[in-house]
Specification:
The complex is a heterodimer of chains A (about 110) and B (about 650).
Chain A lengths: L16 H24 L4 H23 L10 H24 L7
Helix pairs in contact in A: 1-2
Chain B lengths: L2 H9 L7 H23 L3 H9 L4 H30 L9 H35 L8 H20 L26 H30 L12 H32 L13 H35 L6 H14 L15 H29 L8 H24 L1 H7 L3 H31 L5 H27 L16 H31 L38 H7 L16 E4 L4 H17 L3 H19 L5 E4 L1 H10 L4
Antiparallel strand pairs in B: 1-2
Classes of the chains: A mainly alpha (about 110), B mainly alpha (about 650).
């Protein structure tokens, strides 16, 4: 999809459709499992949270590996910078949201 | 009138709501007939489809974004004038409470999401590839999809006004008010789906321009040789990519609450409405930086060009942009200090908020130092830039006042807040976008906008701005809350509100002057024959205006930061002229009607979800999937421009 002077990143890596299908199925399975666990209240809320978080982490890895080809690439490692930044934002937002929403000091 | 039609007219067309709706209906019908008639009369349907609706050319997409932004500025502006008319005197019943609610909701949503966003995307599209020496964006087809998703999302939101009813819960759309139990109407669904659809487009645009800037720069253009506007787009894209998903999630969960009966934001079954507010502002605060950062970029270009000086402190400008884009993620809770999360939470977010003032201050001082001893030319882009500096400084100062968490309990949701954010969003974003529009207009269309009419617009808009919003700071201190549709006379707010309304009308006149200026300049505007009307500094000014669709006949090699300026100083401009032996065939993406159709399919699906018409929703989604499948099997999506055609075009432009 790149044009003109941007040909450097296109064409070098060829992937078989199998990789995409495996990734697609894996991400569907991970989503379905998480949805089913939450819908049927299969576990107590505490362990459920941990399981959901692990499933979400796996989902990220599947997306990055199978679709975004995070292990490949040439040129400067821009994607590593983006990944690190993304992880910082994700953790900061999630943890700070928990902090904000716990209303622990009850001063309202 | 048959009963069936009566029912339809009252339920969907809202003809029982009175003359405002009837007038709008009449205007919409007349405008549509006018457009259809004109296209048919001038036989322009094919032209419209071939040259615009199917285009993947970043410059044309940019122009379409610009037109959409100006139209939405008009719509949002009319909303504002209606509100100010209602508030001009105490106890007025020009609008009733419900209409007032709908109008402030659409005003806010349109101005942020359907005016500011397309305006910055217009400049992204028009300027970035030209500044970095590229022939298009990284993903031209995706770029077209982004535009059409924005367009149809905006369309879906806008038709709510005359079809089904506008949303009325504020642009922030907080539950529990927006839950089904309190808000049955389709208006809230219009809001959710319109934003969701255009939001997908925005994320794609963020990814597209990040990839473009990182991967498509001309040889020699290192990151630290990039023009500051491009840097600001890079910073804004980083913010878009990480912030917009939070909005997507918040809207999706609220939609699930409304459509399938989940309880994410109701107090039943462990839901919590404050979580929506939290998620909304995780996006919402970075969002204001998304729209202000490109404006900062514009000011950096304009200041350097019109002071004829290299920008002062380039590296610190870059560092400040990056610092703002990162700190902007850690300030969101200042939108709900009064929620009562606790002193520790409020302290953290108050300090983080004040910290944003530091890199912003660095930028302001750098602009001032660039102006210092510069040979300043007072042309329109510079005028708006100079007006921005004091306006944004006051807006920033009141922002720091609001950031003081204990004091915020006093200002929260008062007119003080309204005055503050209008001051930074108008004084920052609107001034910036107008400066950018005037600056790059000749590059887009090949003529300058008339200076004299532009000055009328500038003074009306600027004086109007202060007359409108300065009284609102005082009204806030006097206890006037936002979103009140009327107030009794004994509050003593009448005089200041009346003054404020006069200011709003002055701004409206300013906008009309801009419209007049555009219309006048199409015919009489000074033609730009050189391609470099402002004596510019960056690569886009080395090209003819308007730019040929392949941009650069030969991709330039960059050796300096202000490449074009340096070449001009050294008398080496010939180096950027194409030489016949260097011209090679150019790969270009083919036009495609699919992005338009896909946007339309999204629109149909959205409409289906709004009214719970499941068949329509399913049909729309099928259309979306069909477009994706068709794209997956498309192998022949590029063509080559032969050397002869490039030589012919360049020769016609006198460049060969």
């Amino acid at each position: 999809m790149s044009h003109g002077n941007g040909h450097a990143e296109a064409g070098e890596h060829r992937h078989s459709p199998a990789m995409y299908i495996v990734g697609y199925v894996l991400s569907l399975v991970l989503t379905a499992v998480a949805f089913w666990l939450a819908l049927t209240h299969a576990m107590a809320i505490g362990p459920l949270m941990w399981v959901l978080m692990i499933l979400a982490g796996l989902q990220i890895i599947v997306q990055l590996y199978f679709f975004m080809h995070v292990t490949e690439g040439d040129g400067p490692p821009f994607h590593s910078v983006a990944l690190v930044l993304g992880l910082i934002f994700t953790f900061a937002i999630a943890l700070m949201s928990i902090w904000i929403m716990s209303f622990h000091s009850m001063v309202a | 009138m048959p009963a069936g039609f009566q029912h339809f007219a009252d339920t969907y067309l809202m003809w029982n709501e009175g003359p405002l709706i009837w007038m709008s209906d009449a205007l919409i019908v007349l405008t549509s007939l006018g457009i259809v008639g004109a296209l048919t009369y001038f036989k322009r349907w094919k032209w419209l489809w071939r040259e615009w609706l199917t285009t993947v050319d970043h410059k044309k997409i940019g122009i379409m974004y610009l037109i959409a932004a100006l139209l939405m500025l008009f719509r949002g502006g009319v909303d504002a004038e209606l509100m100010r008319t209602q508030l001009a005197l105490p106890g007025v019943h020009f609008l009733d409470a419900e209409h007032y609610d709908q109008i402030f909701t659409t005003h806010g949503t349109i101005m942020i999401l359907f005016m500011a966003m397309p305006f910055i995307f217009a400049l992204f599209n028009i300027v970035v590839p030209l500044q970095i020496g590229a022939r298009d964006v990284a993903f031209p087809y995706l770029n077209a999809i982004s535009f059409w998703l924005f367009f149809f999302g905006a369309m879906l939101f806008n038709i709510s006004f005359v079809f089904g009813g506008s949303p009325d819960a504020g642009w922030t759309s907080y539950p529990p008010l927006t839950e089904l139990g309190f808000d049955k109407g389709p208006g809230e669904n219009f809001y959710l789906l319109g934003l969701q659809i255009s939001g997908i487009g925005s994320i794609a645009t963020g990814i597209n321009f990040l990839a473009t800037i990182l991967k498509m720069r001309a040889p020699g253009m290192t990151l630290m040789r990039m023009p500051l506007f491009t840097w600001s787009v890079l910073a804004a894209c980083v913010v878009i990519i990480f912030a917009f998903p939070a909005l997507t999630i918040a809207l999706a969960l609220l939609m699930l609450d409304r459509i399938v009966g989940t309880h994410f934001f109701t107090m039943l079954h462990g839901g919590n409405p404050m979580m929506f507010i939290n998620l909304f502002w995780i996006w919402g605060h970075p969002e204001v930086y998304i729209v202000i950062l490109p404006a900062f970029g514009v000011f950096s270009e304009v200041v350097a060009t019109f002071a004829r000086k290299r920008i002062f402190g380039y590296s610190s400008m870059v560092a400040a942009l990056m610092a703002i884009s990162i700190i902007s993620y850690f300030v969101w809770a200042h939108h709900f200090f009064t929620m009562g999360a606790g002193a520790d939470v409020n302290t953290f977010f108050a300090v983080a908020t004040m910290a944003v003032g530091i890199p912003t201050g660095v930028k302001v001082f750098n602009w001032l130092f660039t102006l210092f001893r510069g040979r300043i030319r007072m042309q329109l882009p510079m005028l708006w830039t100079l007006a921005f500096v004091p306006c944004f400084a006051i807006g920033g100062a009141t922002g720091v006042m609001l950031a003081v968490a204990p004091a915020d309990y006093q200002y929260h949701n008062s007119y003080f807040l309204i005055a503050h954010f209008h001051q930074v969003l108008i004084g920052g974003v609107v001034f910036g976008m107008l400066a950018g529009m005037y600056y790059w207009w000749p590059k887009m269309f090949g003529f300058k906008l008339d200076e004299r009419l532009g000055r009328w617009a500038f003074w009306f808009f600027n004086i109007g701005f202060y007359v409108c919003f300065m009284p609102q700071y005082a009204l806030g201190f006097m206890g006037m809350q936002r979103r009140m549709y009327t107030y009794p006379a004994d509050t003593g707010w009448g005089t200041l509100n009346f003054v404020s309304t006069i200011g709003a009308y002055l701004m409206g006149i300013g906008f009309l002057f801009i419209v007049l200026q555009v219309l006048y300049s199409i015919k009489y505007g000074e033609r730009d024959l050189t391609g470099d009307p402002w004596d510019g500094r960056t690569l886009e000014w080395s090209l003819p205006s308007p730019v040929p669709h392949y941009n650069f006949a030969v991709i330039p090699t960059v050796t300096d930061r202000d490449m074009w300026w340096v070449l001009k100083q050294e008398g080496r401009t010939e180096e950027l002229r194409p030489k016949p032996e260097e011209i090679q065939p150019i790969h270009m993406p083919k036009n495609s009607g699919r992005p338009f159709l896909m946007g339309f399919a999204f629109f149909v699906a959205g409409l289906g979800f709004v009214f719970n018409w499941h068949v329509l929703a399913a049909l729309g989604l099928l259309g979306v999937v069909a477009c994706m499948i068709a794209r997956s099997f498309e192998y022949d999506d590029e063509y080559q421009i032969p050397v002869e055609e490039i030589e012919y075009t360049e020769a016609a432009l006198g460049r060969l």
